[in-house]
Structure formats: structure tokens, C-alpha cells
Amino acid sequence: MMSCSPYANLGKEEENDGLSEAVGEESRRLTREQLYTLVAAASINFSSMMCYSILGPFFPSEAEKKGASNTVVGLIFGCFALVNFLTSLILGSYLSQIGAKFMFVSGMFVSGCVTILFGILDKVPSGPMFIGFCFLVRAMDAISFAAAITASFSILAKAFPTNIATVLGSLEIFSGLGLVLGPPLGGFLYQSFGYEVPFIALGCIVLALVPVNMCILPRYDSTPRKESFWKLILLPKVLILCLTIFSLSACLGFFDPTISLFILKKFTLPAGYVGLVFLGLALSYSLSSPLLGLVSDKLPYIRKWLLIFGDLMTAACLFMLGPAPVLHIESQLWMFVLVLVLIGFSLGMSAIPVFPEILQCAYENGFEEGLSLLGLVSGLFNAMWSLGAFVGPILGGFLNEELGFEWAAAIQGGWPLLSGLATGIFYIIEATRKSSSSSLQNPRDNEERTRLLGNEI
């Protein structure tokens, strides 16, 4: 005989609450697979950013000795982003067919080999042959980077489906460390041992990490499904989020050819202090990203506000970085560093919520959960970031040469201003549509309730 006592139901509810709390407590603990996935992703973030940034201090001067002009050196740097843009889209589309673990490990292996190859380019004869090999090796490095990072994003999203923003934000610490440590370490090894040693040493470290990741990285198998890339990117929300990714990357890319020259000219600092000034941006971004990721996961409704205010804050900071001549404010070093710190924080506000927002939009529009979709979203994210990294330095260098750094930074702030306004307008329209659809649905519900009550009477 079944009990109708309310105390029995209360006991069941307490039992269910206890069970859900136990499950929640268990889900908060990292499994061994998740821990190994974090270690593997941290290793690729750190090593890939080191390989990317190590060229800065000494490669341009070495390339000039080999007959490469400043324009050609800029194109060698820029081709990395362009090739990365093209290959990320392709590799993301075929991730489930290739296999996430294989793409990750093979990308890391090729990256290590290519880094070593860069170290022996000084043996190549000067002129067109040297320039051609530089483009070839840099393009191969971009392909390996695209493979490893696209696979890494997909594996992380698969391993941490409910807190991907927190994980991505935390791993940005290792990306920031790689970007910060690459130039000084490369410069020290170059001055102490010559051109070859920085590349060979770093390449060997990356290759040593390959068998480690082969052993510890879990295999995430998936049934190959061909998700439509065009169906995803033509979603209005995804298009706007792609503009956000592009604008943030373009702003960061703008600093590459311009900021060191401005610091040396405006503040007459020694060359060794330029990296310390830029450290403010890198550290503020790296240290704030885990917190912003946690907020994004715990409070998903906050993401839209992070995206909007992050973009608008970045635009305002770029307007103040020079500052823009229309403000008639004299540039000072303390203010310049403070604005860079604020830019690092605002970039994190906008960049961290983008990936989970694209995933959520894809699920809402009928995409099936799995590695196929994760690969597509990862490839799209990396491709848009690479496109911004390609356009940013070119446009920034041109504006800096024609108008000066102050106006160039202010104009570059137009990218995040545009994406911030577009994001705000989209979310206002989306909220209006939801409220109107719910108001249309409520009268129908009331009519049905009235009809049912009338029938019962």
C-alpha cells in the first residue's frame, strides 16, 4: 500500500537533495582524465606562445643581414596569421574525422620540428632563397599551431562542458607566460650562444613534451558528423561574436609594429625597459582571465554584459592610450602603463565569454553536441583571431606611419567600439523578441485555462 503522508514525500525530497548535493560535490572534483587534459592544454598554450614570440627580439635584424627588407620581414610575420586563418577553418571542419588527440599531438610534433628548422635558416644562402624558406617554415609553423590549438579547444570543451570559460580563462595564464617569457629568454640565448640555440633549445623542449602528451592525453572518440560551417557562421549572433573576436585580435596585433617605437620615442626609455611596459597588459589579461571565466560560467546571463562593456572599455582605453590629440592631454608614462593594464582587463572581459556563447547559440539552433561541432567552433574562433592578428599589424603600421601613434590608436579603437555597439543592439533586439513572444503566448495560456475551468463547472 502506498503512503500518502506528506512526511514520506518530504523524506524523499531530502533524499533527492542529498543525492544531488553528492553528485554536485563529485562533479566539482577533477577526474584524472580532466587533470591530464589540463596539463596537456597548458603545455601547448605555453610552448606555442613561446615559439610564436621568440622571434621578436633578434630575427628582424638577422633577416635584414640576409637581404630581407622591413616590408618582407613584416610579411614573414604576417603570413603566420594568414595561414593560421585558412587552416583553422579546414582543420576544425574535419576534426572528428582526423581525431582530436592525433591532431593535437601531430601539431605539437610538427611545431617542435619547425622551430628547430628556423634555427638553421642562417645557413641558407642570402636573398630570395632565404626569404622563400622563411615563408615556408613560418607557414608550416602556422599549420601546426592551428592543428594543436583547434584540437586543444575542442578537447577542453568536451572534458569540461559546464565550465569551459573558467578552464579557458585559467589556461590563459600559461599563454600569457609564454608571450612574456619568450622575448627575454630568446634575446638572452641569442646574445649568449648565437642565432641557432634559442630555436633548437625550444624546439627540443616541445618535442620532449610530445611523448608525454601521447601518454597522458585521453582519447575522445566521436562519430564523424559533417556539421555545416555556413549554417553556423551565418547565424546573426555568431557573426557578431566573430566581429568581437576579430576586433580584439586586431587591437592586440596593432601593438606589434607600433608600441615599442612609440615608447622609445616618447618616453626615451632604454630598449630593455620596453618589455616591462608591455608586461602590464600581459599580466592584467592573464591574471584576470580565470576570474572572468569563473563569472562567465557561474552567471551565464552576465556574459552579454561582459561582452558589451569589455568592447566599449577597450575602445575608450585605446582612445586614451596616446591619448588622442583632440583631448589635448600630455602623454605620461604612468598613465600609459595604467591604460595598458585596463586594456588587458577589458580584453579578457570580451574574449573569455565568446567561446561558450558561440556554443550555446549553436545548440539553440539545432546543432548536435559532439566533437564535430566543437571542432567547428574551435576552428572558427582561431580563424577569426588569426584574421585580426593579420589585419591589425598591417592597418596599425600604416596608420602609425601616416597619422602618428596617437591617432592610430584612437582609430584602431573603432573596431571594439563597432563590435560593442553591434553586440548591444543585437541583445536588445533579442530581448524584445523574447518578451513579445512570451506576451503573445500568455493570453493563449489564459484562454486555455478559462476553457478548462468552464468545462469543469
The description of the largest β-sheet is: none
Helix content: over 70%
What is the CA-atom radius of gyration, in angstroms?
A: 25 Å
Extended strand count = 0
Mean pLDDT, nearest integer? 82
Global shape: globular
Helix and strand pattern: HHHHHHHHHHHHHHHHHH
Distance between the termini: 33 Å
Tally of alpha and pi helices = 18
Q: Unreliable segments (pLDDT under 50, ≥5 consecutive)?
A: 1-27
Q: Give me the secondary-structure category.
A: mainly alpha
Give the percentage of residues in beta strands. Answer: under 5%
Question: What is the fold's blueprint, element by element?
Answer:
Elements: H1 6-28, H2 32-53, H3 59-65, H4 70-93, H5 95-98, H6 100-118, H7 128-159, H8 164-193, H9 196-216, H10 229-233, H11 236-267, H12 274-298, H13 303-321, H14 333-351, H15 354-364, H16 371-403, H17 405-412, H18 414-456
Summary of the model, kept short:
The chain has about 450 residues and is mainly α. Helix content is about 80%, strand content about 0%.
What does this structure look like?
It is globular and about 75 Å long. The model is unreliable at 1-27 (pLDDT under 50). The protein contains 18 helices and no strands. 82% of the residues lie in helices and 0% in strands. With 457 residues, the protein is mainly alpha-helical.
Keywords:
disordered N terminus, 457 residues, mainly alpha
